Amino acid sequence: EADLIPNWMLLPLTQARLFAYVLDVLRLQTMGVGCAVEPQDLPSTNLTSSSLRQVMYGLLLGSRKSIQVDEIDRDGLLVTSIPVKPKSTSVGKSLVLNSLNEAPLSDRLKVLLEALGGTEESLSLLPPQLKLPAAVTCYWMQRAQPPPDLSLLKALLLGMSNGNMLRSRTGNCNQARL
């Protein structure tokens, strides 16, 4: 079983820079998705990110994709095991876990954007620091059940834009001092 965990993952795992659930997926094909305080009559909020986890399982399990991962989540008030099939993005199919850390950054970005349902083109007009938050926000708005309240989206966008503006001003001030 030691060969299930690539060498490049060992140090980050022992330093707690990589989540331990990666080991659960690799060795046991199980993952507890965590609990949130939420209304029992609504679907689990973990369902929103299910397709992202499927891509993660696809990257972790590689050629063993015929195996399913059992996610431990809730259904109402009951804790249950939900079988989930790993999936691959078009770029992710060519990536291998043993050398994933050596994959070109552009390929890793494509896998992430594909999993989020976005493209580099759709984000091309945004400053680099807002591309990932924008892609994640679009994914969240399209997948969350129930759909997020519009006021929550406005607050999020305002926070992103103000944070970006503050970073820009701080950067300009720091450059002026040099």
From TrEMBL:
InterPro entries in the record: Asteroid (IPR026832)
Name of this chain's protein: Uncharacterized protein
